[in-house]
Amino acid sequence: MRALLQLAQVDLPSLGNEGPDDLRTLLTISFVLLPLGFAIGVLGHLTGIRALVATGVILILVASAFFVVAVGQFG
């Protein structure tokens, strides 16, 4: 959890302080959901619980969608 909080506070390069807040929000959501999805998916594989694997995959897909929307809207 501590690592996720540190990841959320990472300053994105090339945006600076003048970058759009919506872009920063979308990318932060994407960068937090992606490792969380991988962690939950790996945990699901280790324990053999298919619901955890599916949840991890869904989180990775949602993170990818947020990233695509961020790049599509703000280039």
The tally of domains stands at 1
Helix content: over 70%
Number of strands: 0
Order of helices and strands: HHH
Major sheet description: none
Can you give a write-up of this model?
The protein has helices spanning 2-8, 21-47, 50-74. The chain is mainly α and 75 residues long. It is built from three helices and no strands. 12% of the residues are buried. It is 79% helix and 0% strand. The model has no long low-confidence stretch (mean pLDDT 81).
What topology does this entry show?
Elements: H1 2-8, H2 21-47, H3 50-74
What keyword list fits this structure?
mainly alpha, 0% strand, 3 helices, 79% helix, elongated, 75 residues
Summary of the model, kept short:
The chain has 75 residues and is mostly helical. The chain has 3 helices and no strands.
